[in-house]
Write a structure and sequence with these properties.
With 251 residues, this protein is α/β, with parallel strands linked by helices. The chain contains eleven helices and twelve strands. Helix 9 links the parallel strand 11 and strand 12. The longest helix is centred in the first third of the chain and has 11 residues.
Length: 251
């Protein structure tokens, strides 16, 4: 079995790391370069950087900040936020990103996924999905969870896979920041339905939640933010715990 991945996430607003609950009530969480360097040293498998207001504010991602972070880490680095066209992807890859995450722009123009996969390879294209479950139906949202699209989670992720997305980063808006566990049922459905890796996001509060995301949700990777930023869970301890629980990890 392939090793599972632990991925800290830097949600960036105005150049600073922030964290909220259910996508609102943001608070400061530290300097992004310092956090990134610490996670790389602690043994994180990858790092995700999301410029969470770039699409809403209609601007590009902070390229200089991406470059500074890339200089301080030695792990795979995914960057998202404000990516609308191939030139945006090229600029971020040149700044040191290994992959890009697309969300709002891909929902508005799904051919963007095809273009990224064709020009840079599927391994570069991560489809980020912010979805909320209402009356048993998972609907996808635009602009950092501000606008419902009407697209259903399973339908949209399947289309994205067919278009060439290499991974799906699924964030449950219901679970985000609540620290009560990941959306394991939806994760398992995604894992069973798709052939590309699924990254779980939204809901980590304790080590058991990561275990359940892997064993119950069948996720390939688990992403978290505040539990790492505020020192509630240390990555080396988390990995040791998961290994003891039978989850394959790179130690």
């Amino acid at each position: 079995m392939l090793a599972k991945r632990i991925i800290p996430c830097l949600d960036i607003k105005d150049g600073q790391t922030v964290k909220g609950t259910n996508f609102v009530n943001l608070r400061q969480a530290g300097d992004p370069v310092e956090l990134a360097s610490m996670y790389s040293e602690q043994g994180a498998d990858e790092l995700v950087f999301l410029d969470i207001t770039a699409s809403f504010e209609g601007r590009k991602t902070f390229v200089e900040l991406v470059r500074r972070i890339a200089e301080h880490i030695s792990i795979p680095f995914t960057v998202g936020g404000g990516i609308h066209e191939l030139s945006d992807v090229a600029r971020l890859l040149d700044a040191g990103a290994d992959k890009v995450s697309v969300n709002s722009a891909a929902l508005r123009r799904p051919a963007l996924i095809d273009e990224i996969a064709l020009h840079f390879g599927s391994q570069v294209c991560v489809l980020a999905v912010d979805a909320k479950c209402t009356e048993g139906v998972w609907k996808c949202y635009l602009n950092g969870g501000r606008v419902e699209t009407g697209r259903e989670l399973m339908d949209w992720t399947h289309e994205a896979q067919e278009r060439g997305a290499g991974e799906v980063l699924f964030t449950s808006m219901n679970h985000d920041g609540v620290k009560m566990g990941y959306a394991n049922e939806a994760l398992a459905q995604l894992s069973d339905a798709l052939s590309i890796p699924i990254i779980a996001s939204g809901g980590a509060g304790q080590k058991e939640h990561f275990r359940d995301a892997f064993l119950l949700g069948k996720a390939d990777a688990a992403l978290a933010a505040s539990v790492f930023h505020f020192g509630e869970i240390k990555i080396p301890e988390l990995k040791s715990y998961l290994c003891a629980q039978g989850v394959p990890m790179r130690i």
